[in-house]
Structures are given as C-alpha cells and as structure tokens.
Amino acid sequence: MAYAVDFAGSNFTFKAPEDRADVSDLHTFRQRGGPCNVSCWQLTPDEIEEVNRTGRIFLSVMSGMTFYPVFLGSEARVRSVVVDYGPVWERG
Fold this sequence. Notes:
This protein has 92 residues and is an alpha+beta fold. 20% of the residues lie in helices and 18% in strands.
C-alpha cells in the first residue's frame, strides 16, 4: 500500500488519532492564505509495476458523504496547479 512520506517543503502535520494503529501522521504543505494542502506518497515496488503496466491510479477519500476536490500528479505538475492559488513549497 502506498504510504505518506515527509518531504522538503512540508510545513504542517495532521496527527493520526492515538487509537488508530492503521492511520499514520500526514505531513503536508499547507498553503498560507490559500485552499491547498499537499501531501507526498510513496508507492511500493509492486504498485509502481502495476501503474507502469496499466497507467492507472485509484483514489479513495474517507470523507463519508462529502467528496472534496483532489488533484493527483507529480511534484512538478502539482506545483504548477497549486501556484494558481498562492505560494508553493520550496523544493528540496
């Protein structure tokens, strides 16, 4: 399963609930004065192979009946979208 990783430029951490062993902290770039929160995810080797083979990624948002706007992409692509809404993170 892909897992969230800290990255250069992250400036906020959503802390995992203490009673949930299946949830980990989520490091993000939280845009000051803007609507964007950006996280970084690492795929396992098996997932990389599947994505390379199929070209497909699935997204699951555990938000109940509300589905918030999301955007998936490489760091460069996500930065190119986030900058439309305000400052972006410093690259490491």
